[in-house]
Amino acid sequence: MNKTYGVLAGSAVAGAVTGWMARVLWLWSIAEEERSCADSVALCFSLYPLAGIGLWMLLAVPVLLLALWMLDVRPLKATVAASFALQWFIIAVLAGLSRRDLPESVALTVGAMATGPVLVALCADPARRRVGLVGTGVLVTVCLSLVWFSIHVSGYFL
């Protein structure tokens, strides 16, 4: 039982760290794009948003890989891929619901991103797989409901 709580806490910390990295890199890319396009009178495209996403991918995957390896969560490749995919889904939903392309709240971003690896770690534990699957289903359902609600209230998403 103690090992399970350690795995859940460790995966939550790893998810929070990657969530914080996503927010910082996304804010950096938005600021750099605004700075580089400030003098443009025409339509301006820059590679900074793609660079921010790419940097997050390059940093988040090794952090998740190292954390889940140290926590002895198996199968490692599948759990890292699932954790990253769930975090990608969460950040896409949160970014689409915000006014500035990223949630205003650091706690919301980091907290939501921390849930991804925790739910995947629960799914990897045979004794708690049902709880992890139900939690993942609830998270995805809530996110998709928010998307549906934002589309019907504002008329658009993303």
**Please, what is the average pLDDT?**
88
* Topology order in helix (H) and strand (E) letters: HHHHH
Characterize the overall form. Answer: globular
Class derived from helix and strand content: mainly alpha
Spans with pLDDT under 50 lasting ≥5 residues? none
What's the β-strand tally? 0
Distance between the termini: 42 Å
Number of helices: 5
Which percent range describes the beta-strand content? under 5%
Helix content: over 70%
Q: For the CA atoms, what is the radius of gyration?
A: 17 Å
Largest sheet: none
Molecular structure report:
By secondary structure, the chain is mostly helical. The chain has five helices and no strands. It is globular.
